[in-house]
Design goal:
Layout (H helix, E strand, L loop, with lengths): L3 E5 L10 E6 L12 E6 L2 E7 L14 H10 L4 E10 L9 E3 L2 E4 L25 H13 L4 E3 L2 E4 L8 H10 L3 E3 L2 H10 L3 E11 L10 H21 L10
Parallel strand pairs: 1-4, 1-5, 5-11, 6-8, 7-9, 9-10
Antiparallel strand pairs: 2-3, 3-4, 5-10, 6-11
The structure holds hypoxanthine (HPA).
Hypoxanthine binds next to β5, β10 and β11.
């Protein structure tokens, strides 16, 4: 049984090269996850894989059942989650095809089921550092070992989508201190923390955010960069070291 769970983002709804031993459709108290969990190995590494948007990209960011996805992974024995996510770059270092392992997040999403705590069971979890420090470190080491250009740290601005942002919205995010922008970072990270899962994000920058380059953002550009970024994300998994049993998040 693997403790490693990988949530695949846009462009990574199938995991080519993964040797799948079995699939499982999990029922959860929150309803259905995005799809069946895939159990297997990738380059010798045991893992459980779940495409965030579902097979065939059925669920846009605001309709993803984040609680069910994370609950299913936890129920399957996952203790640490690497979240792959395609994002836009805002600040200078965050150019397309660069990878970022963010260390902070600002939540601009609304109307999503964002907590597992219901009436009569309120807990206020600490979220000062929204990503697991040790898992982030391992992801960074793996990226460097794979020779990938990776930025250590940055603030992920999580927007509602599914549309991309206006130039003014990106300017505001930048004033707020955001380095990258994506649509799925929250509530995923918060719910993972509530469930006691170690969670880190491998953000694949696939375009300059609105207004950071002349002209509109095109799906062709995103698709082109996504190919390189996905190859890099898979390299990270190949180079990921085993967890150190003495470390906690
Ligand atoms: N904005 C929000 N989400 C994204 C972007 C973007 O520019 N690119 C990829 N995901």
């Amino acid at each position: 049984m693997s403790g490693l769970g990988v949530i695949g983002g846009s462009g990574l709804d199938q995991f080519e090269g993964m040797h799948i031993t079995h699939r499982e459709v999990m029922a959860t108290p929150y309803g259905e996850p995005s799809g069946p969990l895939l159990f297997g190995r990738y380059d010798g590494q045991d893992m459980v894989f779940l495409p965030r948007h579902g097979p065939g990209h059925a669920f846009p960011p605001h309709l993803i059942n984040y609680r069910a996805n994370l609950w299913a992974l936890k129920e399957a024995g996952v203790t640490e989650v690497i979240a792959m996510a395609a994002v836009g770059g805002i600040t200078a270092r965050m150019a397309p095809e660069v990878m970022c392992v963010p260390d902070q997040i600002i939540d601009y999403t609304w109307g999503r089921e964002h907590t597992i705590f219901e009436r009569d069971q309120v807990e206020h979890i600490d979220f000062s550092l929204p990503y697991c420090v040790t898992l982030r470190h391992r992801v960074l080491l793996a990226a460097r070992a794979a020779g990938i250009e990776v930025v250590d740290g940055g603030t992920y601005g999580a927007t509602q989508g599914p549309r991309l942002e206006t130039i003014a919205e990106i300017a505001r995010l930048e004033r707020d201190g955001c380095d990258i922008v994506g649509m799925t970072g929250m509530p995923e990270a918060g719910i993972a923390r509530e469930m006691g899962l170690s969670y880190a994000c491998c953000a694949m920058i696939v375009n300059w955010a609105a207004g950071k380059e002349d002209g509109p953002i095109t799906m062709e550009e995103i698709g082109r960069n996504l190919k390189t970024s996905i190859a890099q994300a898979k390299q990270v998994l190949r180079h990921l070291s085993a967890p150190d049993p003495s470390e906690t998040s």
